[in-house]
Amino acid sequence: SQQGEEDPQALSIQEGENATMNCSYKTSINNLQWYRQNSGRGLVHLILIRSNEREKHSGRLRVTLDTSKKSSSLLITASRAADTASYFCATVTGGGNKLTFGTGTQLKVEL
Amino acid sequence: DTAVSQTPKYLVTQMGNDKSIKCEQNLGHDTMYWYKQDSKKFLKIMFSYNNKELIINETVPNRFSPKSPDKAHLNLHINSLELGDSAVYFCASSQDQATGGSFFGQGTRLTVV
């Protein structure tokens, strides 16, 4: 079964607004990663947050991790039309080397 | 240069046929993967190889057989294709999932008719 559930499933905002996506997972993790997938393309790694970290920034991206609630959020600030894509969280557990993906959030940024 | 490249990008074939998808990475990574993305966009790992050795095999029908001739290549062969095999298959590679992410290929959209 999927490790993570993402919320919302779909999000539509205006350019310049902030977009927040949430991810919940079920078991203890080593780290959590966020990926972007443009329509018809492969996944692109955005950011990785370790289980002992609470917040991480990369450009317009801000990721938080709450291991007590087994949840993470991805904030995209000042969104652009080019941010339109599907966003997936993925977890790495134990000493494992595989990614277990969430269900994804489809983000649409309108001009 | 494309970091992870897979061919073909599109594959349309009839039920019962055998087909292969090829993947190559030029990143020098030790680990390569095959993931399957279904029509609802759920992504699930199928196989993982580390330095040509199989390390993950996730309850995939044995009609699917990965082969890694060297650590830069991981191919996927599928026998006796079924309608339910229709999906997008992604190849990926990584050096260390504990510290860095995976690099994905562009995907192969397989349609079985």
- CA gyration radius of chain A, whole angstroms: 13 Å
Task: Give the biggest beta sheet of chain B.
Answer: 7 strands, mixed
Principal-axes shape call of chain A = globular
Average per-residue pLDDT of chain A, rounded, comes to: 93
Q: How many extended strands of chain B?
A: 11
Q: What summary fits the major beta sheet of chain A?
A: 6 strands, mixed
N- to C-terminal distance of chain B: 34 Å
The best one-word shape of chain B is globular
Order of SSEs of chain B: EEEEEEEEEEE
User: How would you classify the helix and strand content of chain A by structural class?
Assistant: mainly beta
Q: Which residues of chain B sit in consecutive blocks of at least 5 with pLDDT less than 50?
A: none
Figure out the total of helices of chain B.
0
Give the ordered list of helices and strands of chain A: EEEEEEEEEEE
> Largest chain interface and its two residue counts?
A-B, 25 and 28 residues
Helical content band of chain B = under 10%
Number of H/I helices of chain A: 0
Q: Would you write up a description of this structure?
A:
The complex is a heterodimer of chains A (111) and B (113). Chain A is an all-beta fold. Helices cover 0% and strands 55% of the residues of chain A. In chain A, the strands form 2 sheets. In chain A, strands 2, 4, 5, 9, 10 and 11 form a 6-stranded mixed sheet that branches. In chain B, strands 2, 4, 5, 6, 9, 10 and 11 form a 7-stranded mixed sheet that branches. A 4-stranded antiparallel sheet of chain B has the order 1-3-8-7, with no helix packed on it. Chain B is globular and about 40 Å long. The mean pLDDT of chain B is 94. The interface between A and B is medium-sized, with 25 and 28 residues.
